[in-house]
Amino acid sequence: MATPAIRMFRRLEGLFCVYKPSGVHWELVRDTIETNLLKGVNSTPSLPLPREVRFLALEGSDSEAPKALRLTAVSVPVLSKHPLVTGPEFRHIKVGVGHCLDTPSSGVLVLGVGNGNRTLNDFYRARVTRDYTLEGEFGTATEDFSHTGRVVERSTYDHINQDNLNRVLAALEGANQKALLTYSNIDMNSQEAYELAVQGLLGPDGKSPPILTGLRCIRFQPPNFTLEVQCLNETQKYLRKVVHEIGLELRSTAVCKGVRRTRDGSFALQDALTRHHWTALDVHQAIRKYHSSKKGKKLFRSRKKEPPLSEDDTSSDNETSRNKEVAG
């Protein structure tokens, strides 16, 4: 019979996402969640101790044999099965990490527990896009393209306006769209390419360089600006370099002040658990929500695949209803 701790662990198996703060390494996030899940699983009420029958000796009566002993059967708990003797039922829970975020970055970080680690491997290899918001600042260039790096150049930015910035972004997005078609290895005139494009699954076949599938400016207040990016196979360092290259295209310089992931596949920012909710109960609720959303999508797809009623089926249904009315 499964113990309460095992039943609790089975409810935790699956995928969920958390919000990784900036300045915190992803390994620390994973280790913190593993510790919290261990505490939650091992704190469940344990089963009653098993009992065994022992024969205890009692002193004899004061009759013929004063030194005679009598045996009596007594039911006693098996103390060797006590949690204080055996220790916690779970000593390690493996939490897997999907697409990692470097220390300066923040945002959505997908994790897996139990059999969710196998699903996480499939999720990692899937051609899913990720969304980011990039905070940039014109006028400065650094060694590592971030605002904390060593400054190597300063320049003016008064000549930059939003129209110029939008033209550079459109040209960069167009170049990346061509790269996406090149690395997809699919005939663009085929039905397969059309179906993949409709479902949003058109992507590189295997490993490819980083590709930006979408790029637009959502805030422009010189010297500061904010970009919204959709991409594949990216790294956060590459995204900082994109901000640097945009500055060069505008005959200026730019540094990246912040990288925040807002979506990873089907996991969005509103689904991410903040630091105060990295508990076993909150993780269980997030995993249950993820499973229910997957079931809803499968049901929706199955309904979409049902063929519509033909004219013969419709006429037969109408005839059946008329017969029922006549019979009534």
UniProtKB/TrEMBL annotation:
<feature type="compositionally biased region" description="Basic residues">
    <location>
        <begin position="293"/>
        <end position="304"/>
    </location>
</feature>
<dbReference type="GO" id="GO:0001522">
    <property type="term" value="P:pseudouridine synthesis"/>
</dbReference>
<dbReference type="GO" id="GO:0009982">
    <property type="term" value="F:pseudouridine synthase activity"/>
</dbReference>
<dbReference type="InterPro" id="IPR002501">
    <property type="entry name" value="PsdUridine_synth_N"/>
</dbReference>
<dbReference type="Pfam" id="PF01509">
    <property type="entry name" value="TruB_N"/>
</dbReference>
<dbReference type="InterPro" id="IPR020103">
    <property type="entry name" value="PsdUridine_synth_cat_dom_sf"/>
</dbReference>
<comment type="similarity">
    <text>Belongs to the pseudouridine synthase TruB family.</text>
</comment>
<feature type="domain" description="Pseudouridine synthase II N-terminal">
    <location>
        <begin position="92"/>
        <end position="236"/>
    </location>
</feature>
<dbReference type="GO" id="GO:0003723">
    <property type="term" value="F:RNA binding"/>
</dbReference>
<dbReference type="InterPro" id="IPR039048">
    <property type="entry name" value="Trub2"/>
</dbReference>
<feature type="compositionally biased region" description="Basic and acidic residues">
    <location>
        <begin position="319"/>
        <end position="328"/>
    </location>
</feature>
<feature type="region of interest" description="Disordered">
    <location>
        <begin position="293"/>
        <end position="328"/>
    </location>
</feature>
<protein>
    <submittedName>
        <fullName>Mitochondrial mRNA pseudouridine synthase TRUB2</fullName>
    </submittedName>
</protein>
<dbReference type="GO" id="GO:0006396">
    <property type="term" value="P:RNA processing"/>
</dbReference>
